[in-house]
Amino acid sequence: MTEPQQELDFLSDSTEQTSTRFVTFIGPSLQRFDFAVTSTNRFYGKKLVTDLQNGKSAILGSDDLDEEGYIEHVFKLNEEEAAELRLFLVQVVGDPYFTD
Asked: Which Pfam families is this protein grouped with (predicted)?
């Protein structure tokens, strides 16, 4: 017996060219970081940042880096590790922009 096929209700479905930067670095605490930073037109100037070690991703802009505890929470890092990651992220994430 086969299950009835259900239809999907797509809210969005698009393809675009993106740019991804793969970065591996070690901070002062000797914590290794392996990240992919994807630039796209999709997220209002923010970047899609993926931790390749644990599969956690976040859409980040400079405003998110200023939010206390956010990087720690998203990437499951302690304060020292998150501070090291922020040193890198402030160099690569942009300011968000909004269009009407």
From this structure: SAV0927-like
**H or E element at residue 81:** helix 79-92
pTM: 0.82
Q: Are 7 and 53 in contact (CB under 8 A)?
A: no
Could you read off the pLDDT of 52-95 as tens digits, one per residue?
Answer: 999 999 999 999 999 999 999 999 999 999 999 999 999 888 66
Paired strand residues for 21: 37
Residues 95 and 53: their CA atoms lie apart, in Å, by 26
* Residue pLDDT, tens place only, 4-59: 678 899 998 889 999 999 999 998 889 999 999 999 988 888 999 999 999 999 99
The whole-angstrom separation of Cα 38 and Cα 63 is 17
Tell me the residue ranges of DSSP E strands in the chain.
Answer: 19-26, 32-39, 47-51, 57-60
